[in-house]
Amino acid sequence: MTLKTVGKSIIRVDAYSKVTGKALYPQDIYLDDMLYAKTLRSKVPHANIKIDTREAERQEGVVRIFTHKDVPLNEHGVVLKDHNVFAADKVRQIGAPIAFVVGESEEACINGMNKIKVEYEELPGVFDPLEAMKEGSPKVHGQSNIIYHYKLRCGDIEEGFKNCVAIAENTYTTHMQDHAFLQPEAGISYMEEDGTLVVAVATQYPHYDREEIARTLKLEEEKVKVINTNVGGAFGAREDITIQIHLALAALTLNRPVKVVFGREESFQAHSKRHPMVMKYKTGADKDGYLQAMEAEIVGDSGAYCSWAMNVLRKAGVHATGPYHIPNVKVDSYAVYTNNPFTGAMRGFGATQIPNAAEQQMDILAEKLGISPFEIRQKNIFKTGSKTATGQVLLESVPLDRCLEELVKRYDEFLKLKNVVDETIEEGVL
After folding, report:
1. pTM of the model
2. 24 phi and psi, to 5 degrees?
3. What is the extent of the structural domain holding 403?
């Protein structure tokens, strides 16, 4: 069978417009009679709030200020509906949206935003996911900060460790990370003549955006259209709602086009981050270097909202063994609320953080056993026919042996080159 695209170099349909600068991004769109908007965001991580917009509404050029009172259903979220469109009586992280100021110019919006009075009654916050799991910690939502607990059990973990002569036991941490895409969030919303509400935005999920807009504004989905413009980078951060509902609400209410463009600082505050994780590992191998047991506890900081935390921490648990066959495995992974910026989708979905722990464990075991880091990996990597700790049998696409062989080859070449350079330095030539 002849394939049209697989294995061939295909010209991207948007390549020419992007390299020539002709590609249209949402911040490039201007419509007649267009209004501008700015979002007022929380300055504290955890507080009860009261909002007074009366003085702000009297500012010249301010057309309307939207708050939680204007939203028919003030909740959204990709898995749990734990986000507010606008904070009502409480904020749970710095940057939480409180009000949306719409005006005839950006300057009018800024002037109006500066006149909004927000009274903060600060509450104790929790910023460490391990502390957040404790019974007496401040609660972000409801009665528990634990959103999700994934369990993986395979074999007999106690018996497995009895067969080990070398054990590595350590705790590893990874930090929060922003996607830092080139294009900060921007969008425009307007009404078509037939009453269709349109939101033009750079997004990864136009179908989910449409569903969320319709649900929160109590509209039929058929009356909402989401146009996905050119996207200036995303990497997961454009999966959660940021500006879509705010814009839709304003355009629907005012029947005029409304546009918003974030600066970099606001973009940092508004969208999700990569989950920081605390990974407690215990891994053991027998005298020949074969892995026998691994026990891991993984705690992911979800920040103030759930977003994709369940999926991310489940995937972290599934991949906790790394690409290695281990007959006895016990994994517990947790997603936990804190008052930190919320975390969500980012390249790898939890599988990215895990190698920081799993691979360092392998190096430590190799050193304890007196074998090379390559040898211990060659003995334990998945091969075609291997069975993972979750019970999956790998029937194809398991080229780890070839990858390691190539790595050893390149490493040997590096060492030879390094020796030549070292000798040259010793001889005083360099």
Report:
1. 0.93
2. -95, 120
3. 399-430
